[in-house]
Amino acid sequence: MRKLIAVISIVIVYIWDDVLLAAPIVASAAIIGPLTTFGLFFLLYGTGSYIVAIKLVRIYERDKSQKSRLALWLDEQQNRPHGWVLKKTLSLGGVIGFVLSSWLAGGILTTFAIRYSGRGDSLHKLAAASSTIFAIGFVGQYAGIAGLIL
Q1: What CA–CA distance (Å, rounded) separates 30 from 36?
Q2: Can you give the pTM of this predicted structure?
Q3: CB within 8 A of 105, min separation 6: which ones?
Q4: Shortest CA distance to 13 belongs to which of 118, 123, 130, 116?
Q5: Is residue 64 a contact partner of residue 71, using CB atoms and an 8 Å limit?
Q6: Beta-carbon neighbour count of residue 129 at 10 Å?
Q7: Can you tell me the distance from the alpha carbon of 38 to that of 128, in angstroms, rounded to the nearest whole number?
Q8: Least C-beta-crowded within 10 Å: which of 23, 53, 90, 103?
Q9: What is the pLDDT along the chain (150 residues), one digit of tens a residue?
Q10: Can you give the three-state secondary structure of the chain, one letter per residue?
Q11: Buried b (16+ CB within 10 A) or exposed e, 86-122
């Protein structure tokens, strides 16, 4: 069941994010205003991204020796275009690479890439920071656009 939840979460976040996850932000901004919407959805999306990132790393670590479908799918993602972007931005190093990676690829894939590039220390702090950067960028973008248009 946990594998299914992880796969569904990944699909929702990385394939349909603009359609599924931005719609409630825009609708909420029209009803309660962009600033309140930003605060509400920043907490919701930032926390959700952090939880999924940590759970995904744990599931992958448990299943990588068995090469489950989830583990194989995650291995494939590193060779796809967003995996290339992720590697390039992280290779910039330091804060700039981390911020760009978190903003462009999201907190979940950034956490995964950091963990499997050999760095395991402070993973919870890095996942929290990456998820926060992602939530600020994603929610801020759509709440701001909705505030300007509506």
Answers
A1: 11
A2: 0.76
A3: 82, 85, 86, 89, 113
A4: 130
A5: yes
A6: 19
A7: 18
A8: 23
A9: 777 776 677 666 666 667 788 899 999 999 999 999 999 999 999 999 999 999 988 887 776 667 667 667 666 666 666 565 666 667 777 788 888 888 888 888 888 888 877 777 789 999 999 999 999 999 999 999 999 988
A10: CHHHHHHHHHHHHHCCHHHHHHHHHHHHHHHHCHHHHHHHHHHHHHHHHHHHHHHHHHHHHHHCCCCCHHHHHHHHHCCCHHHHHHHHHHHCCHHHHHHHHHHHHHHHHHHHHHHCCCCCCCHHHHHHHHHHHHHHHHHHHHHHHHHHHC
A11: beebbeeeeeebbbbbbbbbbbbbbbbbbbbeeeeee
**Which residue reads 């959700």 in tokens?**
48
| Amino acid at residue number 60 | Y
